[in-house]
Amino acid sequence: MTARFLQLADVAEELSVTVSQVYHMVRSGELPAIKVGGRGQWRVERDRLEAYIQQKYSETADWVVQNPLIARDDDPDD
User: Fold this and answer.
1) How buried is 23 (Cβ within 10 angstroms: 0-12 exposed, 13-18 middle, 19+ buried)?
2) pLDDT tens figures, 11-38
3) Which one-letter DSSP state was computed for residue 7?
4) Neighbours of 66 (CB within 10 A)
């Protein structure tokens, strides 16, 4: 059975970023999370992480449309 909640280290591994970056996303409200336990440890629900990833795909697609790649004359791939 897959765990419902992930620790910040697990989220960092999933996203290939640092735990510090995940902590910032959580504290800024960018990535929804909850605090649990007496020491208030952060947990991210797996479904919320998946929704966050889908949102980022959508935002990236919008950004690509609004910022088309313009070929340069000196571009060796042309």
Assistant:
1) middle
2) 999 999 999 999 999 999 999 999 999 9
3) -
4) 7
Give the phi and the psi of residue 75 in degrees, each rounded to 5. -75, 120
> In whole angstroms, what is the distance from residue 54 CA to residue 62 CA?
12
Question: To which residue do tokens 């088309």 refer?
Answer: 68
CB 11 within 8 A of CB 22: yes
- Please provide the distance, in angstroms rounded to a whole number, between the alpha carbons at the two ends of the chain: 49
Would the pLDDT of 74 be above 70?
Answer: no
pTM of the complete model: 0.81
pLDDT range class, residue 1, cuts 50, 70, 90 = confident
The residue type of 5 is F
Separation of CA 2 from chain center: 19
